Amino acid sequence: MGLLDRLKSRLTRTRERISDGITGLFKGGRAMDEDVLLELEELLYTSDLGPVASEVVEDLARLHRRGEIAGEEDVRGALRDSLLSRLQPEGGEIELTTEADEPFVVLVVGVNGSGKTTSIAKLAHRFTQQGKQVLVGACDTWRAAASDQLHVWADRSGVEIVKKGEGADPAAVAFEAVETAIVLGYDVVLLDTAGRLHTQKNLMEELRKIHRAVGKRLPGAPHEVWLVMDGTNGQNAVQQAKLFAEAVDLTGLIVAKLDGTARGGAIFGITRELDVPVRYIGTGESMELLEVFEPEAFVDAIVAG
């Protein structure tokens, strides 16, 4: 099964909202008019596109006035092009290598319940399947049993973990994880961090401290900082994401839990506000259900008839 077919089967609720919704707009051979455009805008808003919904419908309205779109398939094609133009083409997977053959360090951040720990486990599994030696650093030392939970996931993924006791200095754990990876020749280090409430400035400062500690041991690290977002939160996740972006330079997004929501359209609003590419999307619980984000396949999965 190809990526498009997999996404169609996993993003059913968002697909039903958008693709099936478009079919409903033109039921009975209804002609394209201003009322259809208004209903389409409402449909896109309820799929959590946010301000992007109005922008996209404005694109379609211009095309309609010029006589370039008239029916359902025209609308699907124009909607596809408009949505695709709002996703960064440089998203998706990147090469996890460094020039000096040192460990590639990824700092993973996100609020409690976003799917961060599960996403790290999926990343570890993915990179291991690619033949890389992966080490996980359990830098969430404040939440009870957080490192134990990560340890369980690490065992399932077949990767090693560096962890300390509850209440240990997260920056020290990060430093030791990178140190261990350098000494033992690991390829990739994934650093889990506390699921910070975005309103707690002291925890955001701790995130900056982890960032500095990693860079002290390995100049240039972390090489990537990925924010895990809960896809079911839709536009509500945008403000959280902005605050994380103020604490550290985000280089990529992982949007989790997209299989259980009709709010998959939030990806367009999120990337619009943050100007950060989506790397992966989570489409289920099992280890394999972390898909590389490919804009064309994603848009086709939720728009195509």
Give the helix/strand layout.
Layout: H1 3-10, H2 12-25, H3 34-46, H4 51-65, H5 72-84, E1 104-109, H6 116-129, E2 134-138, H7 146-157, E3 160-162, H8 170-184, E4 188-192, H9 201-217, E5 224-230, H10 236-247, E6 252-256, H11 266-274, E7 278-282, E8 290-292, H12 295-303
Parallel strand pairs: 1-4, 1-5, 2-3, 2-4, 5-6, 6-7
Antiparallel strand pairs: 7-8
What key attributes describe this structure?
305 residues; alpha/beta; 8-stranded mixed sheet; 13% strand; elongated
Structure description:
An 8-stranded mixed β-sheet has the order 3-2-4-1-5-6-7-8, sandwiched between helices. The mean pLDDT is about 90. With about 300 residues, the chain is α/β, with parallel strands linked by helices. It contains 12 helices and 8 strands. Helix 7 (about 145-155) links the parallel strand 2 (about 135-140) and strand 3. Helix content is about 50%, strand content about 15%. The protein is elongated, with a radius of gyration of 21 Å.
Query: What quaternary form is this?
Result: single chain
Principal-axes geometry comes out as elongated
Average pLDDT for all residues: 89
Strand content: 5-15%
Q: Helix/strand/pairing class, anyone?
A: alpha/beta
Order of adjacent strands in the largest pleated sheet: 3-2-4-1-5-6-7-8
Distance between the termini: 18 Å
Number of strands: 8
The biggest beta sheet reads:
8 strands, mixed
User: What's the gyration radius in Å?
Assistant: 21 Å
Succession of helices and strands: HHHHHEHEHEHEHEHEHEEH
Question: How many H/I helices?
Answer: 12
The residue fraction in helices comes out at: 40-55%
